[in-house]
What we know:
- The chain is an alpha+beta fold.
- The protein has helices spanning 5-27, 56-61, 76-85, 112-120, and strands at residues 40-42, 52-54, 64-70, 93-99, 107-109.
Amino acid sequence: MAIKTSSAKAKGRKLQQWVCKRISERFGFPYDQQDDQCMIHSREMGQQGTDVVLRGEALMRFPFAIECKNQESMSLVDSVNQARDNLKPPYKYWMLVHKRKRFKKPIVIMDFDDFLELYRR
């Protein structure tokens, strides 16, 4: 049975907000979904660009263009292309955060060379 559009958007919004909260907790930056100018903000559903908006020091310390997918089935090629298309300055790296029921936690997909560069640090 297909999921309703409103339910699908709610699932996506929940993952985006989870990512925002985790970045906020890890780096100590404020996150307030009600404040559109907060350093970390979940983009409204249906808008173009990254799913997680980072500003100021949050962007400097975590320079990722983040695309979130909370779906049981997805086209990996299309999702990676969408994440790559969001990679515009000031972002330095792209990241796809994917969640599905069978995974215990969301996973991250990114370019391997970028991963190696970050791991080296």
